User: Fold these one by one.
Assistant:
Number 1:
Amino acid sequence: MSVLEDSTIATLLEKNPELIGKRIGLVFFNLPTSSMRAELCESISRRVGTYNMILFNTDYPVNSHNELEIIKQAKETHDISGFIIWPSANFDQYAGKYLTSENIPFVLVPHVSDIYQGQFNEICTPTDATSLAISHLVSQGAQKVGFVIGENTYNSVYIQQRYMCYRNVLLENNLNVYEPLCIPDRPGKESFHSFDPKIISEIQKYDGIFAATDFLMALLYKRCVDGGIRIPQDLLLTAIDNTPTSLCLDVSSIEQNFPLIAFKAVDLMISLILNPNQPAQQFTVPSELIIRSSSKKVPT
């Protein structure tokens, strides 16, 4: 599935004028960072506007039951024609069942594919995207590669998927696999100001680290600076999300192409509204590792 050209969209609207003015609901659960949410929202909004449709941004769900309640209320009170959803882990048990039973079109934009075994329409990034960063660290000579997670993201299915990629690449290269290093990641200033010698001591065990999100990378970067650990001289560092944070800190990070994901999600949504009985489809948008100075080995 390719992104439609503007001329194709104009022809589509001429043939289907009933699409104009319809409302698309946006439901995002548990995005790792506000910058990721903003990028997706802005890209989806721009694409919906191309179709002369209206984007309805709902509240952010706090759990699976709340996700279902928000979707029900939006449908009943705002005449939503379809939903674009970043789903909860139990989406298939609650919101997914409701939307399917009510024949309401929806598209999921999760980080990784195969979460729901192909039963729903999904626009995904590759399940092995993290492998790009781990392989790069190894190619730069890292022999002890750590994996950093946050206290609030430990049980996320996305983090678990990334850890499996980390593990597989290291095993393929006959290198040791380490248990995740957990650092505080609570919202607010305390996460950035909590200097902890124990964490610094743990970081010093590695010559390369992959942070499971750019936000965690920023917290780790601050601890390295406070603890006298130089990047990249003492520690090679990579992350995932490629937010402005990684650009500002010059840290290598995985670009997941959220604008393209957003455009494809909206185009698929239009297709579902016009033809609701089509079988579920899954599309994978390629990821790219943006290499910056943080992961380039400095000659000694």
Number 2:
Amino acid sequence: MNAYCTLYCSECPVFNSKEEKYSQSQMEEIAKNWGEVLGIGIKADELHCDGCKGVNVFVHCIECRFRDCCKEKGVDSCSNCEEFPCDNLRNFTEWFELNRESFLWRKKGMRNEST
């Protein structure tokens, strides 16, 4: 599934948390990393999401500017917008690439403790 901003939900540890069955300590590490990058406090029990196009959305993404903009314009993704790529998306993409490792936690060589 693609998010409104064109990121892939399947790369997100929050989106994958049900399937991966991360331990409590792993969830706490993800929350800590994301909180530091986003500059907000995140609790491990807030790390759940069915994708930004679903009903159960990660608490930080509920007020996502891309989600709101796409809904307002009636498009299912920024890539389907006539203004694509807008300055907001370009700035976000650059910022995300700089912080990619913090968001893609499971890509950092960590292993699921339950396996």
